[in-house]
Here is the input.
Amino acid sequence: MSLSGLRNHARSEKASLSWFRRSLWLGAALLVIPSGYAKESMDRETRIALIRGLLREIAVCKVAMPRGKKGLRLDAQGKLDQAKAESEMRTNGMAIRPGMPVEITKIGFKSDQLVFEFNGGGKSGKKWYQHIQIGVGTATTPIGPQQPATLAYGSSITLDFGKSVPDLTVQQVKKLLSGVLDFERHSPTVLYSPAVPPKFKEAIKKHEVVVGMDRDAVLSAKGAPDRRVREVRDGVEQEDWIYGTPPHVLFVTFDGDQVAAVKQY
Here is the structure.
């Protein structure tokens, strides 16, 4: 290679090295997150900690909770949107009375919200397959049995932060929910309700379940079930609450909101 060629090659190598260094510097700069930059959402470890600490947790409701998929809404300080709560109550009716125990059955994570479902949530309606029909034109036939729409007995609470959800501890979430839920009351409040028959109160004290109890009474007597199973029997949707593991298992069968059968194995 000539002397001129060597010089040109050296210049080319120097230019390539300079470009490589600038690329490394730019990549490093892009990886640095400026101080105070907001995260998109809470991290995975925080979500897992909230699920472990709050899922299946039981509290006592301080306010009436409506049916429907919207439920109650709280802001970033835990303040209840009273106007929306009253609107939902007028539209969908009441699902949970004040003073009744509720169980957190699902936690949803959104970029700016935490959504808690209680006692199975507030959604109701037909099963997905009951909406499917086959046929030609207007002559169509449903492919599945058409049971009446199921009635929801639960509700939900949405914590709306209006921005990215911060990393929160279990106790911080409970504090934000404390305006509508009481996590500190351990005695069954249904024992003090005049509407609860004496035989049910006596059963609750003994941690027993009897036919005719409603879900609130069963939760007060036995706590949250280990498993829940819903089935359609003789055209009626029923739900089993299952306590314990084999060979000692308690089955509590609900027809609507009342206990229809209790079987101990």
The CA atoms of residues 199 and 210 lie 9 Å apart. The chain has two domains: 44-128+151-182, 190-264. The chain is about 30% helix and 30% strand. The domain at 190-264 is CATH 3.30.1450.10 (Beta-lactamase Inhibitory Protein; Chain:B, domain 1).
